[in-house]
Amino acid sequence: MQLSFKLNGSATQWEDVYPGENLLEVLRRHDCWEVKGNNCTNGECGACTILLDGIPVPSCTVFAARVEGRNVDTIRLLGDPDHLHPLQQAFLRHGAVQCGYCIPGMLLSAHALLVRNPHPSRDEIQQSLSGHLCRCTGYLQQIEAIEEMARLPEGAE
Amino acid sequence: MASRTVVGQSVDKLDGPALVTGQAVYTDDFSLPGMLFGKILWSSRAHARIRAIDTIAAERLPGVRLILHHGNVPRVAYTTAGQGFPEPSPYDSFIFDRKVRFVGDRVAVVFADNLIAAQEAVGLIQVEYEDLPAIFQPEEAMQPNAPIIHDEEEIRGAFDPGHNLVSHLDLKIGDVEQSLAQATYRAEGTWITQFAQHVPMETHIVIAYLDEWSRLVVRSSTQVPFHARRIISRLLGLPIQKVRVIKPRVGGGFGGKQEILLEDLCALATLRTRRPARIELSRKEEFVSARLMHPMKVQVRLGADSGGQLQAMEMRVLANTGAYGTHGSTIFFNTGSKTLPLYNKAPHVRFVGDVVYTNLPVPGAYRGYGATEGYFALECAIDQLAAKMGMDPLLLRRKNHIREGETSPIFIKLGEGREGVDQTVQSCGLDRCIELGMKAFKWDEKRKNPRRIGSDRVRGVGMSILMQGSSIPQVDMAAANLRMAEDGSFHLFLGATDIGTGSDTILAQIAAETIGLPTHRFTVHSSDTDFSPFDKGAYASSTTYLTGQAVYKAALAVRKQILSVAGLWFEVEPSTLEIHQGVVFNQQGARLTLEEIGYRSYYLADQQQIEASASALSQASPPPFSAHFAEVEIDLETGIVRPLGYVVAVDCGVAINPELARGQILGSLINGIGFALSEELLFSSRGVALNPNFLDYKILTSLDLPRIEIIPVETNEPTGPYGAKSVGEICINGPLPTLANAIFDATGIQMKEAPFTAERVWRALKRNE
Questions:
Q1: 8 Å CB contact of B281 and A40
Q2: pLDDT value, residue A156
Q3: What are phi and psi of B196, to 5 degrees?
Q4: What is the mean pLDDT of residues B435-449?
Q5: B495 partner at 20 to 30 Å CA-CA among A121, B48, B607, B702?
Q6: Spatial contact of B193 and B296, defined as CB atoms under 8 Å apart
Q7: Do B551 and B500 belong to one domain?
């Protein structure tokens, strides 16, 4: 079947989508390698999180057909290696990145939080990351990075 | 030492920009035309012979290209452990065997054009099993008439496979029995640990293909590319020359990827079909059929004189290595060798134990490598002893722990699966770790606080002290190659295996400091067995310490070459020149950039490639040290244990990159807290894993963090690069005893079985009422 949606702001049309396929599989089949976490497929680890109309969701829990006509954003939304988004820089500065596998998903959840609420409390930050499992870092580094962003004046992001 | 400009700086990870933007850097972020997808059929039986395998229906399924099982693959005994050659683990595994030894053991693999067909075909394979009696308890494995799990004639390197014994040791120093009999104070208990999984966010994955020269290329999420190459080559009868292993970025390892688990199957499929072949483990498969942590029963007996001086220490270990003995004996040796030297003044020491096969999934290397289980027992026994003496457990530890300039007889008697290496501790910040930790934690003040909080809660405080090692001395080698380009930038080629730790960045910092330029001028290549110099891989807390020495030597040699070219240019003795920030200065202040030197060397005069290689083999394994402090609150109604605050002070020598060192400390600490409070893989009475998923196997999330304070305690390790020791493993050993001791302080109950779940604690409270 055919799928038309906006991917990172660009109108996208894919012809070879099968009913029942989840969004994660379809994205990776179309070389969206930035969406990680192709193994739990249960929504348990959060690594494959994307933004669906601005809301973070694990893409393995979304039928691809459900995104027809909607906006899907991956980590490409934020920045590229030569032009990092301030949130990405903050993650690096605070040592929030070790193996990096969970990081694109975490960044998207953090970004969605900051868009919705530019000055979240520590509790809100911890809540926003609670769907993301990380085995390398211990989470404090990401929390600190997001707190640094939350201290910036509005619009500075 | 002149002031350092790069070492000691929290330089951003060199791979950071690629990782935060989700670049295609992992094994699976890659696709090849014609790639086959593999799915493995796992055993549904705990112990059985395979009478027959019928693959006809599976083969007929459209898209199925190859089915492998014991009937059509080479039969070569090997170990899946990625260790140096000859491996100290027993050769007790086969690509596929006629027998299965746990629920989740390999039976067959299907390769098909797509994953759905492979999965469906796996379900169509008919296996006829002849069930054999199974063993699930390590004590049963040692009974005289126990079923023999490894009855294959090819087995080599196990202590006594006829009695299910992988390893046995009885090491005696002095006379423990007599000393215990004479001791004024004694402590005793048996502490039990559970099956736990590493839980790397990226599961095991391999993609194999043939290159344009018909050489086998294996792209693998591995900690040990060189060991993988050697083991694949032997298993498949292919010369090492014909095999290339590439390690892209790895999504976490923690010891679980120091194993050769999928490489052989993908390689076979590629050799037979000449098509690329891929296998990725699902999360459930990772839990059951990858590797776990060794469950152990560790009995400790301590004896002290009236002044609190430890006189006798005995540690008896029973380790369950599951169906295969990978890392079994080396981990068991480490349980003693990484713990007992901490209290080096006791004249009477005994370390005795057994490692046994059972029909359960397979433990292997896990961060901490046996020390975790040993410290749980030892450090809880110390608190029991202190309680009997009415002494502050912190003071008892201070009286007895090892110090700078001291040694322990254990160092030479006990190594990894063999004798160890004599060494004197040349750097030890343990005194300061305890001092600074207790102050930050407010130890004395908190110990005076009332334990009871309201009617239904109690609080308590606990501590522990730890040491680990840095590298396996006189066993493992690491090398580095450093090459300058004409723009004055460098390529650093490493066999060392950055699995997320940041070792690429740390090793580049060591080279940058040595030559005299910023870290961002380095491009690090790790690892590709075609281009990297040999390195044992990422394990045994050795990359910064050991590979760091090789990088340091190579960088010194490169620096010498640069200065010699500059000396010709300036017409002065090279020794009169200096390098700062990538610029060579003579004594008059004239400048020459590395770029000018690079162009001259490549194209203009005295032409030569500025480059050097160097190797390092460690003669010692200098221990890092740490002191852990925790406060817990226990709900008496539910048994829920909540860690409130945690202070950890760590001596890892000089931290080359403090932020990355902090990352290792925090990550291992959080993993250790999860291991102490919630993580446990459970099994049915038939050996079936009951909770192989993240809903039922709980690792800590961002909501579960106590207040954490980390205190770096710098020492200078004279044998390490720029004074560095290791930091990757030590702190995972702390939470079990620290939290158990805090529960002991709060309730008077010693929790002797991990994890301390609400149910276990509640039952212990009820028993105590």
A1: no
A2: 55
A3: -140, 155
A4: 97
A5: B607
A6: yes
A7: yes
Identify the CA nearest to B253 among candidates B289, B199, B293.
B199
Any B CB within 8 A of A34 CB: yes
CA distance A1 to A12: 14
Which residues from chain A sit within 8 angstroms of residue B280, using beta carbons? 38-39
Mean pLDDT of B212-240: 98
Q: pLDDT over 70 for what percent of chain B? A: 100
| Residue B343 DSSP one-character state | G
Nearest-neighbour CA in chain A from B436: distance (Å): 22
Contacts of A135 in chain B (CB under 8 A): 198-201, 252, 254, 667, 671, 699
Tokens 């992001």 label which residue? A157
- Domain of A104, CATH number, reads 1.10.150.120
0.90 exceeded by pTM? yes
Q: What is the pLDDT of residues B686-706, one digit of tens each?
A: 999 999 999 999 999 999 999
What DSSP state is assigned to residue A67? G
Tokens of B687: 């050996």
Is this complex scored with an ipTM above 0.90?
Answer: yes
The reply to whether B158 falls in a domain is: no
Instruction: Find, among A55, A74, A67, the residue nearest to A22 by Cα.
Output: A67
User: For residues B293 and B196, is the Cβ–Cβ distance under 8 A?
Assistant: yes
Domain match, A63 and A96 both: no
Residue A134 lies in a domain: yes
Nearest to B333 by CA among B370, B299, B300: B370
Measured distance CA(A102)–CA(B20) in Å, rounded: 10
Same domain, A18 and A59: yes
Which of A99, A102, A134, A149 should we substitute to test contact with B (largest number of B Cβ atoms within 10 Å)?
A99
Which residues on neighbouring strands pair with residue B464, listed in sequence order?
Answer: B628
